[in-house]
Amino acid sequence: MKAVNKTKNIVLAEKVVVASGLKKFIGLIGRKRLENGSGLLLLQCRGVHTYFMRFAIDVVYLDANGKVLKIVEGMLPYTLGPLVRKARAVLELPAGTCRESGTAEGDLVEFIKEEEGK
User: Fold this and answer.
1) Burial class, 8, CB count within 10 angstroms (exposed 0-12 / middle 13-18 / buried 19+)
2) Which pick of 10, 28, 89, 101 has the fewest CB atoms within 10 Å?
3) pTM for the full predicted model
4) Of residues 39, 31, 33, 41, the one with CA closest to residue 62
5) Which residues contact 117 (CB under 8 A, 6 or more apart)?
6) What is the CATH number of domain 2-93?
7) Where are the domains of the chain?
8) Alpha-carbon distance 26 to 108, whole Å?
9) How far is CA 114 from the centre of its chain?
């Protein structure tokens, strides 16, 4: 699926993977990088860390409606991010994505499932 900042009318990530279960626990650990145009969506999540990761990421905290509550740009490896109590999901993106797209707190992010066969 893709993540779109509806407020700015810009695609944040063409390929977003939803992490659940063990995949949610592992997240981006072990990867060398997060490719441009990619993202990881952690549902039922209020906080993240980058322990054991090799690269920085942008972290976007979302409420149940997709409203951006908080952004941590360029969160470095071995960092504990803030706990955002009202967050219901966290979108992890390549570092620099939020700055480049102008994504800010209060923006609305929508997730669009790709049609089968595309």
Assistant:
1) middle
2) 10
3) 0.91
4) 41
5) none
6) 2.60.120.1140
7) 2-93
8) 27
9) 18
